[in-house]
Structures are given as C-alpha cells and as structure tokens.
C-alpha cells in the first residue's frame, strides 16, 4: 500500500502517518509497556532491536512475531520494519551459539580478498536474520578510513581505499538484498576521518572540504546509490571547512537535501542518527532536533531508549506540523519512501518466519562458509625470520608463552555473554597453565580459551598470562626467560598505547635473549593484532606480525591454525597498507608439461620406483604402482596428468595426476609425486598450480577433492607417519586447502581368508524377513543400481559401478533388496584379482587378493546392511580362492566398529580434503 501526493488513503490518519516516520528502540527481551505504547498508541512503524533485546534465535523469532501481532491488532496497514545492527566481527546484536554463525568483520572480509565471498556472507547473514523475522539491516558500513590509525570505527570499516570500500560495500548490499532484507548505508557523509570521540558533550568534527570528501569518502555512498541501496543513515557529526559549517550532519539541509538528495540524487529513505546522543540532545533538545532533522530531509527519525524522550520526539514533530515549520507534503514524501522500502515484507511473511527449523537447515553450509572466510582472512603481514609455522620453530617439549591484554570483549561476540559471569573457569587441558594472580577482568576469558587452543594444538606446554598498563612485571620476566617462543597479543594498540609499548619491549627482550650457554640467541617473538591491523602494520621492528581483524572465538581459532601451519594464511592487509607493506615470498617456477604416455611412461615408472624406496607412509603407498595405475582410459572421466621433466635426459622430476568426473562434477588431484632428491625446490608447487588451473577449465565443476579411490593410491593425505603427516598437512595448507575440514577415510583388509570365519551367529543376526541379499553381474542390472546411486547422492561412484557392470566376468555387485517391494536399498562392488578395476588398486599386487569397494546404502539400518553386504562379499571371495580381501576405502563415520567385528583391520588412514573451486578464483 502506498500513499498518494495529497492526502493518503482513509486508513492513513495523521497519527498513523507520523508514526511511520519514526524508528524506536526499547528495553527488555519481551514485550514491554514501552514498546506496546509506541506501537499501539503512537503507531510507530519501525522498531530497532539491539543486543539488550535479544537472547537467542528462538527468542528473537518469538519477539519479532509478537511485535508484528501487536502492530496488526493495533490496525497498522503494513507490517513493522524490524531493524538490527549485524555487521559481523564484533558488532552483532543477535548472537546464538547454535543457530547464528559468526562471520568476519568488514575489514576481515576485505582481507580475505574475495568480493564473491563477501556477498555470500552478507546473504548468509541476511538469511539467518530473515529466518527470525527481521527485515531491515543497518548495513553495510561505507565509511572510508581516510584517517585510519586513531579511528573509532576500526575494523567495522572495509578499509582506506574508496574503490575497495565501494566494491565490497556494494557486494555486501547485494547479498543482503538477495536474501530479502532492506539495506542501509552508513554513516553519511563518513566517519572515516574522525580523530577520536571526545567527551559525550563534544561533537566529533569532519574537517575535510566537500570537494575532498567527494573524491574519496563519498565514492562508496555514490556507488551504493547507483547500485540501489534502500536507505542511508546520516551521522551526528559536525563539519567545519571552507564552504560548510554544520553542527550536526543529520540536521543539516546542506548535507541531507542539497548534497545527498540533489547532488547525489538519492531517492531512498534517509534515517537520522539517534537523536538521544548526548551531544545533540543537550545542545538542541529532542523536540527541536526532530523538527530540524525532518526539515533537513530525513524521512525516518531514530530514538533508541527512553519512552519520555521518544514521546517528546513525536510531539515535537506534531508541533512542527501544527506551527507550519513542516509542510504536509513532506510527510507524504517521507511516507511514500518508507512504504516503498516496506515492500521487503508483507503480513503473510511477517506472520510466518522460518525460524529455528530453517536455521538448522542452513547451519552446515553457513558453518563451512564461516570457517572458510576466517581462514582466508588471517594475514601474515611479516615473518622476517620465518618463525612460522611455529611447529617447526620450537620443539614439543619446549615452552610457549602467550601474553594477552585485559580488554572488554567485543559487543555481542561469541564470548561476551560468557564473560558477564566472573566465576573462574576450570583448566583441564594438559600442558596449559594460567597465572592465577592476574586480576579478573571482562576480557580475560576471550583470551583464556585462546591459550587453551594453543595448548591443544601443539600438545606441548603453554603458559599464559595477561598484561596491563602497569607494564612488565617480575612474573613476565620469569616466564620470558623460561619460554622458547613468545606470542604477544594486541587489541587496537593505537588507542591503548600501553599495548604498543609492552609489545615492543617484549620484542626487544626476545632479540637480546641468551641461549643455554650464555650466547646471544634471538628468541622467536610473534605479535598478533586481534582488532585493528594498523597496530604495527608500518612498524618493521616487529619482525613477525599477524592480523585477525576481530577477537571472536572463531577468528582466534583460525589464528591458532595459521600459527601452527594447519592452514595457509592468504589474507592481505586491506587498502593502501596491503600494497605498501605486504610481500609474498618468491619461489622457483618450473616448466610443467602435459604427460604423454609414449614419451613419459617409462620415465614415470622409474620415478615411482625411486619414490617407493623413500622412507615414510607415502612411499609405501607407491609400492607396485606403475604408470598404468594412473591411466584410467575411462570415457566418463576426463584425465589430465602433468610432469616436470628434463627434456635432455628424459628424466621426470615430478608427476601429478588429475581427473574430472562429469557425473559428480568433481575434480580430483589424485597424486603429486616428486623425485626424492629434488624436493623443497618448488616442483610440487608448480605441479599443483598447473593442476588447479587445468581443473578449473572444466565447465560446471562444483568441487575439488584431494584424493580419489580410483586409482586407489592416495585417498588423501596419509596419516600413518606422524612427522610426515604434519609436514604434508602444512604443505597443502599453504597451497590453500583447508586441512581443518578434512574427512578421515581408510583402507582395510583381512589378510588370511583361509583361517577367517565370521563371528558366530552374525549371519543369523543379520538375516531379516524384509531384506534379501544377492549377487549379480552385467549391464542388464544397471537401471535399479543407477536409481539407487541417484537417490543416495552417490554420483561420485557412478564411474566405478559402470566399469564393474561392463566387466561381468571379474566384477560382481552384492545387493540388498527389500522383499516387500523388490527395491534395491544397498549395493557393494565385489572385485576379483583380475577385474579391470583392481589394476588401479596397487595393494592387490599379489594376484590372489580380492577387493570390495564402494558401498551405497539408502536405508535407516545402515550398519547392519553394510555388515550383511560385506559379509556376503567376503564369503564369495573366499569361495573363489582369494587368500586375502581389501576394502579399498571406508569412511570413518561409525562403520569401523562393524567392520572390526567381521575381522577387518585398518591398513592406511588418510585425510580426504574437499574445496570449492571458488577458493582459487574468488
């Protein structure tokens, strides 16, 4: 419903019209007399929810529903706008550990370097808010940090580059809108040049001229307007420069009407800064401020807290209208704009929030998105002495010292609620000690869990204590002398100068430390800035410097993984600082060529034999592998293999095998093999880069996977050798794989079928009147099996099953069928030693081994069906004369227990890794 240019429809009496022009907040987590009065008596059409109103996703959903019901019952013709600040990082009004995901701050998203990722996260944030019934987000922040170092906004801003702020701001805006939320750019004309906020009665002042603002600070606002932003919040700042002298921007016709409306041609809703800010209310008063804001061109007047003040604002607008200070056509103009923005909702939507059920559905996807975003945002600005990863710098038996400041947790962050309770937390992690003499302050526990995470990750001793403005104490000196490496955390040291001095002092002590025999030996010192990255961005005296952009629990967990090399730090400082101070280490680039069988097969056989003689679990897996192991020659699979070679001697220095399955739209990196004598020369890096580029050329590719069971050499990163496993995890992490989100898989075997017998009574226990097992072979059975693969979402196994069906002499399929309707509910491949598939399983080299593979089950009693399928397969292979049986790939999802009962033992274990192709293109 929209008003017209004269009087509005009959339902829009003056009280309802004026009520639509206000956004107001209230106290409490339930419907209060205050908010009921605002909605019922004054017909306020927009409600601002803050952290003080919200306890959980379920409570928020019910609160919003109650608010809308009150508005409907009070005769509101259109639903309420329900607004919220949810900027991510440390500024989230709605927090729910289970249902609402934590995402990086705006600057953290810029550091991650992907505008698509920023848009995806904005959409995810809006989807979660929308599920709770919220329809209006006060974002994105479009301020350009033209004065970054002493800037109160800090990481709430994207950065100091107007074009970068524009690009990410518009991407976030689009993400919010795609999920159905109205958007609000803030804080026009920019808070980015504020030196500091002084006493509450002082107004922060912008001293830049309008010409200067137009060339920098206003660029993101102009681009957001062009992109279709719904509303704009005008800040409560003063402006003083040639040509402009404004006490409060949101009360100024020169800023709102002339600059924003006329010059920048913004047609959406203009919302004022909260008129209850002390500097504004004390100097002008709420009534006068309301009239001035409306005269300036604001459409929506914001008052946040007190009912008496809110009533004063409403009465002030009425008086301004009665006195002729405000013309009635202005009411209609603002009403039209607000109603246009309310197209984001309807009574039908308002009364049917998707709620916790939808949040549960979104949770896995958004959890992965959050983890990926934080992992990509962590930035290693400098590592001059190459102390990172720390796992190769200090030994497990040596002590690590963590020094953290005492600060308040970020508002509504993952830990803020926990810190309201000052009770001590138990410390049960082995190798972790906490200084009990440190005074308990609210920010302490944010970092206490940080210390525990370090202790858990390294399996070694971690000592952790805090520091304050009192500086270095004897306790600090004792711990420093004892530690083999030191981590100092700072949180916005530009405005907490003691942190800056403390970090520099500790860094200098580490440089001057003495070794065990009295010689000078520099001790590794790592400084981690967990808020503003500007703490030491330009200060090269801090040799190893890492930035996280917020100190939420998720960010700090990602930082721990970066410090230990579990993930690769790919983040870049945003804006000009990133271009000026960050550089990536160079490495040798090798010429990578396509593998040609007629030219390279013999040389590959030699490389595989030499690599198999090396030490470590990876070498064992190459036993009996030949060039033919990697050549599938399957028309359903696109294979592309690459080599680094000596064109003169024909020797191969390295080999990489890749496959693209059109059925599952998955690209596999199945093996990277480098000549043992030429490792650490970047050959593997060059092969990996070429493989990624090649896989990205496959149209429609949806997933990357490190590891494959066809050929069955490497199912992922081998885990058998602990030292080798750590090195390989770190290596792949630096290549961009998120090793923290791996899936554990293994290969298993029964090595002596001659003496094997199933557990007594198991066959009878597994028998069921409704489930029958049989063995079939041949392409004529493809139909029902194909249907099962589709139902079970096992498109990754389509190629293997097709090969087995086409090779009926040596390959069979064990089936589980429902007797009631004959439907196939489970299958398993059973392969004889001479099967076409087993040539790609080097562990079957003896020629008398059988193989079972690729179980697919679509019924609820999964484990009993798996046991039944496997039991029949093993029995059949034993009857056919196999001396042993290999189960080539098993997901460790609870099935191992049931396979152990059948006599299987784990042979090799792997970390299977998956990735989104966008990770290498975004």
Radius of gyration: 32 Å
Portion in strands: 15-25%
The number of distinct helices, counting runs of at least 4 residues, comes to: 29
Number of domains: 4
How many individual β-strands?
33
Mean pLDDT, all residues: 85
What's the helical proportion of residues? 25-40%
The parts where pLDDT drops under 50 for at least 5 residues are 1-10, 409-442, 581-585
CATH level 3 topology of the largest domain: TIM Barrel
Distance between the termini: 41 Å
Major sheet summary line: 13 strands, mixed
Any idea what the CATH architecture of the largest domain is?
Alpha-Beta Barrel
CATH homolog superfamily of the largest domain = Glycoside hydrolase, family 3, N-terminal domain
Structural class: alpha/beta
Determine and state the CATH class of the largest domain. Alpha Beta
- The coarse silhouette is globular
Could you describe the 3D structure shown?
- The structure is a single chain.
- The chain starts with 13 loop residues before the first helix and ends in a 7-residue tail after the last strand.
- Mean pLDDT is 85; it is low at 1-10, 409-442 and 581-585.
- The chain folds into four domains: 19-357, Glycoside hydrolase, family 3, N-terminal domain (TIM Barrel, Alpha-Beta Barrel); 378-581, Rossmann fold, CATH 3.40.50; 593-738, Gcn5-related N-acetyltransferase (GNAT) (Aminopeptidase), CATH 3.40.630; 757-902, Aminopeptidase, CATH 3.40.630.30.
- 51% of the residues are buried.
- With 922 residues, it is α/β, with parallel strands linked by helices.
- The protein is built from 29 helices and 33 strands.
- Strands 21, 22, 23, 24, 25, 26, 27, 28, 29, 30, 31, 32 and 33 form a 13-stranded mixed sheet that branches. The protein has a seven-stranded mixed sheet with strand order 14-20-19-18-15-17-16, sandwiched between helices. The chain has a five-stranded parallel sheet with strand order 6-3-2-1-13.
